[in-house]
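Open question from group meeting: does this chain pack into something compact, or does most of it stay loose? Before anyone orders reagents, we agreed to write out a predicted structure and look at it together. Recording both the input and the output here so the notebook holds the full record.
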Amino acid sequence: KPELIKEILEKAVGLQQAVITEIRNLTKRLSAPSLGNIKLSDSVREVILLFKETHKTHITLNVHNIEELEVEQEVHLAVYRIVQEQLTNISKHAGADKVDVALDFAEGKLSMAIRDNGKGFNTQERCSGIGLHNMRTRAESVGGTLLIKSTPGAGTVVLLQIPLVNE
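Structure tokens returned:
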């Protein structure tokens, strides 16, 4: 009996440790990033690195004209959260093993495209999820637009455009 008790206790400690780890991961994903002096491109890199640590997905990030771009805190947080939400959607629903994220600033507009090679979906049937709604709402809250293009069997593309006012 002492061996059985020891085995049960070890399993309980292991499960408890797994719960603690999962709570820490959830807290990291839910808490607002410290965007104080960090550049937009760096915070997007950070969320991608965090995602890569826990998922077996190859992600490429291409940035153009944004390395030194200064954006308002609200815009920064909206972009960060949209990337985070779409990566979560990809991990839960897409079955993708490759994701491309592209950020660009041109003609006064910040543009972002997130493409995956997953299973895709019919946008006429499944555009009402809370995650998709949250991404659209975040884009609109900073004066931007979010477009989702997907076809079953052909992956998904999320396109974000935010006009930036030079101050």
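Observations to bring back to the group:
The longest helix spans residues 2-30.
The chain is about 45% helix and 25% strand.
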